[in-house]
């Protein structure tokens, strides 16, 4: 049998009545089984003539490749993990994650890559997720909403697994690629907006202290108030959820009843804060002005509609997927960072 052949025999009869086999493809193409396997599964060492013959045979027979065989040849799984180290109830209720998943899936599916969603809370679930990543069941990973304690950037950098982070990781920033929004600038801009409208006792419902987004937005708030010579003591941390925002706002008002402005680190938390203010009879923005952060749909429907900083999560997720694809294609060898600017969206709450 000769691998590089121009012969095109008639398709073999389906004597068994089953699906076409690799052997039948090889016979029709006039090549060896090994050559047919390499041609179908993307391996090397296949001449152009043999590749064309195999492609023609696959098309004539309607042959469907075996994914497991392809993986053995290419060492690729054609799947990418979207890693979210958060409780599942938060992942499926927060529009931030819904938008991220939608955009990442759209970009990767265009390249015929399957997205595997990995959700893990700290503890045993996190250890299982790390074992899965170490097992190379996926070709790469996109990580979103990570915390200081999960050390995912260190783990993935040590594995040498292609990856990108949505949001700046705490460590290994010189070893992994990431995209982020300028959260510190956003915190400053929200605070300056309240200063410009005359607020002088401005508190904040900050994000989680173990997330870089939470810390950076808080630092922006502190910088703006510090530049204005105003106190920065009115701080309570929330967890980026509506209930967490309500609880944090209640605690903030108890400790600082004289506030005339609140910078809230996410729209979900701001929605909870607005409910607390309404229940206490405080008019927004007449008695107390409020800003949020994200602008992923909630801000338009609060009462009153929420002034917020637009977090370009769609663009960030698309860029993160693109950076990962560059790594998978071998075109990106050095870690990259891409920072997007937030945009102020003015509505009635401030």
Strand content: 5-15%
Largest sheet: spatial strand order? 2-1-3-4-5-11
Q: How would you spell out the order of helices and strands?
A: HHHHEHHEHEHEEHEHEHEHEEHEE
Give the strand tally.
Answer: 12
CATH class of the largest domain: Alpha Beta
Which class best fits the helix and strand makeup?
A: alpha/beta
What gyration radius follows from the Cα positions, in whole Å? 27 Å
Largest pleated sheet = 6 strands, parallel
Tally of individual helices? 13
Q: Per CATH, what is the topology of the largest domain? A: Rossmann fold
Q: How many domains make up the coordinates?
A: 3
Mean pLDDT: 89
Task: Give an account of the 3D structure.
The chain has helices at residues 22-29, 33-41, 48-61, 67-74, 88-91, 95-109, 124-134, 152-159, 183-196, 212-227, 242-255, 267-279, 313-328; strands spanning 79-84, 114-119, 140-144, 163-166, 177-181, 202-206, 235-237, 261-264, 289-291, 308-310, 337-340, 343-345. It contains 13 helices and twelve strands. The chain has a six-stranded parallel beta sheet with strand order 2-1-3-4-5-11, sandwiched between helices. It has a four-stranded parallel beta sheet with strand order 7-6-8-9, sandwiched between helices. It folds into three domains: 22-74, 434 Repressor (Amino-terminal Domain) (Orthogonal Bundle), CATH 1.10.260; 79-182 and 314-340, Response regulator (Rossmann fold), CATH 3.40.50; 183-310, Rossmann fold (3-Layer(aba) Sandwich). The chain is elongated, with a radius of gyration of 27 Å. It has 350 residues and is α/β, with parallel strands linked by helices. 43% of the residues are buried. Helix 1 (22-29) crosses helix 3 and helix 2 crosses helix 4. The longest helix is centred in the middle third of the chain and has 16 residues, at 212-227.
